[in-house]
C-alpha cells in the first residue's frame, strides 16, 4: 500500500487470508455463523451505554459480557514501573527464548480492561515470536481521564527503552495494541519521536485501533448495533476519557491528525464489521503517505474485537498468526533501521 502513495517499501507480511474462492467463502461463512452467536450473547445483557463504568466492570468480572473470559497464567509476573504519577503495574511474560520485547497496550475504550486479561494470548505470542511481552495496566477513565493513560504508556515505553537490555537481554522492541491500545501505541510513538526515541521501536502492530476521537465516517454511521462496539458506546467511552475542553482532533488524542513522518513500520489490521473500519483504512493511508512502511490487513466480516476469540474463530487465528509474523519480521536485523 505504501508504494501506491509514496514509493516507500511495503511490509512483506501477508494477512494470512486464503486467495479469493471457495476457501475464503467458507471462512467468511463460518465467521458469519460465529457473529450470529456473538450478537445473541451480547443482547442477553445490559448494553454498555446504559450503565456506569463501575457497573460495566462488575458485569464483565461476572462474565456477563460478549467478551471471552481469560484466566491468569502462573508464568506471568506483575512488575511495578516508575511513572510520573506513581508506580505503574505491567504484566510480564518471558518465554524460554527471547529475541525481542513486545510492549502491549490493552484496549477497553480507555475505561475498561486490564493487563492481565490476555495472559493466554500473550503467552502464545511470546512463544511464537520469541518475545517477552510487557503489557501496561495504564490508568483508566473516568477516575483518571486524559492525559493519564498516554502519560503512563509513555513512561513505560521510556522505562523499557532504558531497561530492556539488562532485564531481557535485548533492546529490540515492538509496540502494539488493540482498539484504545492501538490509539495509545500510536500516541506513544508520536511522543517518543519528539524525544528522538521513536526509532527504538522496530514496528507497530495496530489492531482495530481508534485513531480519531472526533469520529471517522464509519464511527458516525455505524449506529446502535452492538457487535462489541457501537456508535453510542464510542460516545460513552469518549465522554468518560476526554474532559470538557479537550480538542478531540489533537494528535495526542487522535493520532490520525498527526504528522506521521518518522514512524516505524506498521501492521494495521481491522475487520469489515467494525465501527472503527475507517480509522484503520485512513491511518494506513496516512502512515504510508508519510513515507513509512505499512501492511494493511482487512478481514472480511470480522467484528470489533474478533481476534480475542481465537479458541472459537478461525478468522481470529488467521489474524493473530499474521500479527505474530509481523512481530518476527520487525525484529529481524535488516529491518532495524526501517523506521529511523
Explain what this protein looks like in three dimensions.
- By secondary structure, this protein is of the alpha/beta class.
- The protein has one domain (22-335): Alpha/Beta hydrolase fold, catalytic domain (Rossmann fold, 3-Layer(aba) Sandwich).
- It is built from ten helices and eight strands.
- It has an eight-stranded mixed beta sheet with strand order 1-2-4-3-5-6-7-8, sandwiched between helices.
- α5 (148-168) packs across α6 (180-193).
- The longest helix has 21 residues, at 22-42.
- The chain is globular and about 50 Å long.
- The model has no long low-confidence stretch (mean pLDDT 95).
- It comes from Actinomadura chibensis.
- Residues 102-307 form the Alpha/beta hydrolase fold-3 domain.
- Keywords: Hydrolase.
Contiguous low-pLDDT stretches (5 residues minimum) are none
Strand content: 15-25%
* Structure classification: alpha/beta
Domain tally: 1
Run of helices and strands: HHHEEEHEHEHEHHEHEH
Mean pLDDT: 95
- The proportion of residues forming helix, as a percent range, comes to 25-40%
The number of distinct helices, counting runs of at least 4 residues, comes to: 10
Radius of gyration: 18 Å
Q: Can you give keywords for this protein?
A:
alpha/beta; Rossmann fold; eight-stranded mixed beta sheet; 8 strands
Summed up, what is this model?
The chain has 340 residues and is α/β, with parallel strands linked by helices. Helices cover 38% and strands 16% of the residues.
Amino acid at each position: 500500500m505504501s508504494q501506491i502513495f509514496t514509493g516507500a517499501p511495503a511490509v512483506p507480511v501477508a494477512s494470512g487470508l486464503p486467495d479469493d474462492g471457495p476457501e475464503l467463502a467458507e471462512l467468511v461463512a463460518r465467521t458469519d455463523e460465529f457473529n450470529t452467536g456473538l450478537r445473541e450473547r451480547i443482547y442477553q445483557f445490559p448494553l454498555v451505554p446504559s450503565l456506569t463504568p463501575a457497573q460495566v466492570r462488575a458485569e464483565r468480572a461476572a462474565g456477563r459480557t460478549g467478551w471471552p473470559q481469560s484466566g491468569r497464567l502462573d508464568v506471568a509476573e506483575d512488575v511495578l514501573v516508575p511513572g510520573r504519577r506513581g508506580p505503574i503495574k505491567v504484566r510480564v511474560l518471558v518465554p524460554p527464548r527471547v529475541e525481542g520485547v513486545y510492549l502491549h497496550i490493552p484496549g477497553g475504550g480507555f475505561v475498561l480492561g486490564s493487563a492481565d486479561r490476555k495472559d493466554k494470548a500473550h503467552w502464545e505470542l511470546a512463544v511464537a515470536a520469541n518475545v517477552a511481552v510487557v503489557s501496561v495496566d495504564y490508568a483508566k477513565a473516568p477516575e483518571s481521564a486524559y492525559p493519564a493513560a498516554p502519560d503512563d504508556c509513555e513512561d513505560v515505553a521510556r522505562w523499557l527503552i532504558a531497561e530492556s537490555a539488562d532485564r531481557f537481554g535485548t533492546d529490540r522492541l515492538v509496540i502494539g495494541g488493540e482498539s484504545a491500545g492501538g490509539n495509545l501505541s500510536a500516541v506513544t510513538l508520536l511522543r517518543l519521536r519528539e524525544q528522538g526515541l521513536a526509532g527504538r521501536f522496530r514496528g507497530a502492530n495496530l489492531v482495530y485501533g481508534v485513531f480519531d476521537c472526533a469520529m471517522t465516517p464509519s464511527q458516525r454511521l455505524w449506529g446502535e448495533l452492538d457487535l462489541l462496539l457501537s456508535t453510542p458506546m464510542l460516545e460513552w467511552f469518549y465522554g468518560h476519557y476526554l474532559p470538557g475542553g479537550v480538542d478531540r482532533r489533537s494528535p495526542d488524542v487522535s493520532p490520525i491528525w498527526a504528522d506521521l513522518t518518522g514512524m516505524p513500520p506498521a501492521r494495521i489490521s481491522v475487520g469489515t464489521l467494525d465501527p472503527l473500519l475507517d480509522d484503520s483504512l485512513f491511518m494506513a493511508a496516512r502512515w504510508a503517505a508519510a513515507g513509512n512502511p505499512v501492511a494493511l490487513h482487512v478481514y472480511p466480516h470480522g467484528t470489533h474485537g474478533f481476534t480475542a476469540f481465537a479458541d472459537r474463530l478461525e478468522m481470529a487465528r488467521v489474524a493473530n498468526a499474521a500479527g505474530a509474523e509481523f512481530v518476527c519480521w520487525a525484529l529481524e536485523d535488516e529491518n532495524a533501521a526501517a523506521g529511523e
